[in-house]
Amino acid sequence: MSLLNIITKQLIEVIEWTDDSRDTLSYRWPDEDKEIKNGAQLIVRESQQVQFVSAGQFADLFQPGKHTLSTQNIPILSTLQGWKYGFQSPFKCDVYYLNTRLFTGNKWGTANPVMMRDKDFGVVRIRAFGSYDFRIVEAPKFLKEVAGTDQNFRLDEFADTMRSRIVSVFTEALAKAQVPVLDVATRYSDLGDALLQLINPAMREKYGLEISSFILENVSVPPEVEQAIDKRSSMGAIGNLNDYVKYQMGQAMAAGGEGSAAATMPATMAMGFGMAQEMMRSMQSAPAGTAGVGTAGVGTAPPGGGTAAPADPFSPAAAQSAQTPAAAPAALQVLTPEQAAQVLGVELADVMTEIEAGHLKARKIGANWRIAQNALDEYLRG
After folding, report:
1. Helix or strand holding residue 127 (H, E)
2. What is the pTM of this model?
3. What is the pLDDT of residues 107-139, one digit of tens each?
4. What is the dihedral of CA 372, 377, 381, 382, to 10 degrees?
């Protein structure tokens, strides 16, 4: 074999790469320590880009097509190599093929709960997962920030590398969007489209990637927040508590038996308190001179003289006449939240929710809550 043939075999004349793996993102073409011949052919297929790297510096980027490597079409490399008047000798250069097709159905998820501030529940921890589609749009940035000098950078390596980065960008986008937790859990599709507008620019700027689709498949909150959401939904479904208590009382009375008596007791107590309040108000508001007006049997003399009939001790007039001007006003009736829950026929947690929301007026004394009966009556009246 002649020396010329040996030298020729050490030169690269054609550079091309056929990808049959369907999961390779970048591929460093193996030069086997050979040099690239002046005028060599570079073949770039559809959905491919080729990035030249000379001595660790990014040089020329080639799009799909057939290219003859000469001074005219590798200006950056010519500048880096110092080829001012063209070149005749072979040269060394790293050649990276990048797959620019759309990679679909890639999974992402939060390994640990993400902290976010919510206007309804304060600081909340959430978990989320979903999928996204992406493609490479800036080869130098992708090689520098993601693939590095890996000879065959595949999709499984990319998933491990990018999962935490996707979650980080998702967290920042969610904080900027300020979406309430209640909306996060019910509007996955709308939220994914909204977050895409925030995630895509960040991914392109940082990693040279374009996210074409970002999908939320599930967002979950801690059990405590789930219970609070359920309670809030229950209160919304109940609506007017007064009507709800009456409804429960009617259902229990229709059922009959001992269970009906137990079920109707809270509602009966609530109605009893209301009737007592009305009676007290009517007796206190009656004029002082009306005690002797009415039927003949209520502490008045019968027409035409004669002995007065005995007064009815259970009449409202008798009850009012028994009061003296110096009598102290009736003591204010105070209930604990537990007693109020029993009166209303609901859970203690429901009463506390209404107190904290400011719907039911109560006063906290030390570590305990107390509810005035008139505040409970006002709440029931709506």
Report:
1. strand 122-136
2. 0.54
3. 888 878 878 787 777 788 888 888 999 999 999
4. 20
